[in-house]
# Entry
Amino acid sequence: MDNRKQILIWILGAWLLATPLTGFGEAGSARLKIDMREQPSIDSKVVTNINKKQKLDIINRLGSWVHVKTEDSKTGWLRLHQVRIGDGRRKNNSGYFGLGRLFGSFSGKQANKGITAATGIRGLEAAQIRDAKADHTAVKAMDEFMVVATDALSFAEKNQLIATKVPYLKKDRKRE
Amino acid sequence: MPGALIRYTGLLLIMLLVPANSYALFGLEKLKRFKPISKKVEIQMGQGIAAKILGATPLVNDPELQQYVNRVGKWVALQTERPNLPWHFGVIDTDTINAFATPGGYILITRGLLMMLRDESELAGILAHEISHAVRKHVLRTIRKQSLADIGRKRLNKMAEEKGSGNYKYLVNSSTEAFSRGLDKKDEYAADRMGVVLAARAGYEPFGMATVLQRLSAINPKDTKLTLMFNTHPDPDKRLQKLMEAVGTQLDAYAKQPRGKERFQKIMKAHIARYVPTKRKKSVFDDDIW
Ligand SMILES: [Zn+2]
# Structure
């Protein structure tokens, strides 16, 4: 690895550490003018009113609710879709999100691999798929990783994933 | 014997009456067009499209990762009305952010999208969305409408059986053509709604997909890694708004189901440490398309 790359990784590491780590340490903003609730429930008390585009710190998420903190340190809950990640402007670099960033802080070597992977230029366009030569061998190769029902069941059991009867959403129930 | 005769006559009458009624309701053309394609052909078309995608982008060379994604995917697929489709899941080696459902249960997710995720419930959510497309036959319907509308069911079945023939290639190429243009917006919203329910049924906290949509909506649509997804899907913010509107508080009871964060991050960390990009085959262009 050349020197410049190493320096870049150190800077990135320092920046990651400096980012306020509340939960995932994410800056957010309100999508619209909205009430902030004390608890994750629509029946809960209103703590304060949040303005459109108001800056928020995203602390945590519970189902469809997000725990946030205002700049004047009030905490409360908003619904997931009422909160935007970042300042509301769309970031150019998708590599900013997710594990590429999270694992970037583990070690130089891994960071390098993760980040390179997240910012490479190999793309996948519609035209590439249309013009590609069909690779039937690769489709066959997928059989090797195919999982039978009993394996899936034991995976679920081992990881305490319990199948639950959940009806389709009301909007879709006429289908059943 | 006379009893049986009456029964058969009754059956015959029903067989004659029902189609007649349907013709009257929907018109002859439509009925002919949307007669269901056999499951076998559905699977063969799916394999054909998957072969084209894999021809453009190879699988990630990491059997452990591939098997993990298959376990999560199959577990979710078992919660549907079509648990017995030959469900196959694959991670493909590209930084672009997307996932694909071909007919018949072949589901592909890009490594770029996988790298954006933070826990297993998010992975389950994305796979659940794709599984929903396959279960509801969204892709199959789009292909028939767009590319193969004037080919009858019998002929389609025959074309699909002649693997390697010009007819089969034509079938796969036209399917891929329609597929790469994307689905109806309403099918995308429907898959989002069905996906959150499937995730909940599989025992996951159901809003993983919603969180991914929230994250995607923070990325500039001009980011080239998202081109295909933004071309073939409605805007992620719009999807999130519509999804949450339809969900309301219906799934709040499952908010405390697990997200599988530690497991997911451990597996991804190990994958990143041993990751070597898969070399692409030299020629990605099919010189014998006709
Ligand atoms: Zn979709």
